[in-house]
Sequence to fold (419 residues):
Amino acid sequence: MNRADRANQARPFTAGTETAELTSIVTGRTGSLFAADLKASGDRVFAEVRDRRVLVIGGGGSIGAATVRIILDYLPSALHVVDHNENYLAELVRDLRGRSAGIPDIDFRALPLDYGGPVMERLLSDSPPYDVVLNFAALKHVRSEKDIYSVLQMFDTNLVKHIRFKRWLADHRHGATYFAVSTDKAANPVSLMGASKRLMEDLIFDIAAASYQSTTSARFANVAFSNGSLLQGFGYRLAKRQPLAVPRDTRRYFISHQEAGELCLLATCRIPDGHIAVPRLDATLQLQLLEDIACACLDYWGLRAERYVDEARARNDVERLAREGRWPLLLTALDTGGEKPFEEFVGTGETVTDCGLANVSALRHIPCVNTEQQLFDQIARWVDEPNLAIAKAEFVDAISDALPTFRHSQSDRNLDQRL
Fold:
């Protein structure tokens, strides 16, 4: 089959259905980076999970769902998965029931709840204590800082509801083991999204820490073909006969869904209390140019990239190029707010320590000296009181005062103005 025929037969894919071959092209690995560490830690993970009650928040999304699939293999007595997106939960249940192992004979439930809403509090009040709680709930896209309304919603999800949820856990003695996912963008943040997750680290380890809890987190790379990701969008753009687009001179790390779930479970069960798990990756070998990733994906689909800098021309030339086995790849400037040209996992003043794992290191959490309860209270007031005036610039100043490492990358352009 020639390139033009491959283009005409292209079909969309969604997170979880991309081929192992395509994922390995993106990550540069045929096996999991963390599989050996998880196997070596099997006794520790079984001791933490087997016959325990486990609650997963945000478990319908890409990373949460990948972690849920692995947790089932360790046979908890109960596994309750909460996500506000009922479509994600429906697909998760179908996937788990349809896999060869099915769902074990345990108390498994999928609950379409807002983790910061009153029904969540009712669930925690009515339930016997959960031994292990994993929290994946987040607004994770830098595009969510385009205006004050999107910013407030992001901080509501990532911080305000999280504080409320942590208080409910403490009131009802849930979560002796607590894990909350962070992001590489929390290291030396330049976006409000990254700043919100850096503040979340202070929240779980300090501001809302409970004396009875062991608390951990994880920062890691882009999950290839995860929901809403640039790579997932490649398949959709191809199926809809639209150009692919990437920012030029921009490098990212990538891990698979399986690797994301394994890293989160290792962070939950294996790294020390008060630490953040980070993957051991070689920047010279595995920090990849997005332009190269896009070209590799097109090549996998039997197409050759034709580079463009003009969006209108790229849109108009799709059909002509497709007939020739080519596809437009739009290269945009990295000039939108909050974006970094590269990823990093360790921030200024943080030190990586060995935790006995081959491909995972740990950072001891260092609280920001200016982060206090008053800041979180003020953010909650801005979220909860619509008559309380707040401009985006004022909000950025307040976060900058609290986070010395926050250097906001401000721009009059945002990702909604990009293909």
